Amino acid sequence: MTPAPDIVDEAPQTDTAHAGACAMVTRVLAFYLGAQRYALPIERVREIQQIVAFSQMPSASSGVVGMVNLRGNVVPAVDMRRLVGLEPAEYTLETPMIITDVREETLALLVDEVQDVFELAPGCLQESPALHGLSAGMIGVARMEDGLVYVLDVDELVGTAVFGGAR
Length: 167
Known about the structure:
mainly beta, SH3 type barrels, 2 domains, 6-stranded mixed beta sheet
């Protein structure tokens, strides 16, 4: 794991309904997809594992790429690269999985690399620009000394892709 960078506290966040969600996120698990860093609120992460007993399966554009055996439970594996618009990568026994629950279903989110858990400084997380293609699936963007971190809304991004509009 790469050491967590220092957080920069600069501009105040906007005063919208989504800004309320931004203010509630204080700790995140950061991970990489390609060269970009993303994060999930730590409350949404059950555990981190490496792929075991992975069975690929064809899927529509939902991002579900197979099933994994997680301690005797069959769990859908979701390729996070697909959900953010990146080309899929090859999965290996070193591929990390972030285990989470979305709509009462356990899912394994496949990512390139898990970085670390870190605290967000007050005010460093702001609402994502509406023009960003992932804005509906993001809680906000954290301004870090070494770049931006997209904090994802797992219910919106993954839930909509995997389960569709149904709740």
